TrEMBL record:
Protein family (similarity comment): Belongs to the selenium-binding protein family.
InterPro entries, per the entry: Se-bd
Organism: Daphnia galeata
Recorded GO MF terms: selenium binding
UniProt-recorded name of the protein: Methanethiol oxidase
Alphabetical keyword list: Selenium
A Pfam family the protein falls into: SBP56
Amino acid sequence: MKAFPEKLLYITCIQGEKGKHDYVATIDVDPSSPTFSQCTRSSPSRNNLVVAGLISDRIYVIDVAKNPRAPEIIKVIEPKEMHDLDLSAPHTLHCLADGNVMVSSMGNAKREAKGSFFLIDTKEWKVKGLWSEDSTNFGYDFWYQPRHNVMISSEWGSPSAFRTGFSLDHVSEGMYGQSLHVWDWKERKRIQTLDLGNEGLMPLEIRFLHEPTATTGFVGCALTANVFRFHRLEDGKWKADKVIDVPSWKVSNWALPSMPGIITDILISMDDRYLYFSNWVQGESGNRHQRHAPSSPSLRGQIYAWGGACLGGVTILEDNVKAP
């Protein structure tokens, strides 16, 4: 793919310690710059970066045009605007062609499970209202293909569960999702739900192919470390099939006898040839070739950065996996 290389990257940085604020860092990635590979600023045509606060329920608008190396917050949409719609826990944001920003949310005002979507007016930077009156059991990510009048959304879990830290008890209590939802983009109505079953617990990031006429995409399921392919059938219905299954590692001196991959993000190359995904707990990044056979992608490469095995004392009991 031929494109101008980026010179600056804006990275969200999440603080794990109480009392410290999250921030957006500006990273210089221009090899000819004297500050190449350095963080040039952390901030308390596409002029603004819009950031959702998953826990705070705030939306931040950051000006990245006035001084790209020192972006600044120009607007904070306070939680009350979301809570007035009985929403909380914003996650994914997309800039729509009509000038609005569409945001997915995962909870109601009481932080109980509720998947919904709302719109932000980019002229006033205020919450306009719900995108649809329909809601789902859980919410998380979404992506749309206007040419096919379709949107697909995914599920994570209840804010009351993930805000307190992950617990397997919450999974057995049904506080995490396992479905994809198909929406009529123009009518803003849910038209189909695809239950992925126990093999598809916590379907997170949705990725359609970049080809605008494509009717297929992928979703990574975190807890079960699987990737599902979703696609439209000849009768107009949608179907989802498991195409990648990442095995757990047998381990000792860990919280569980086996260590799952926990797929947190997936990405499709701009030419739709490769599918990349990260196994957060195992600390591995996988590269799957899928251009000619999206229904059966094959492994082309792996990079190990290591995750849970670097905590100290964890022993991997697999002959084909080398410990860090």
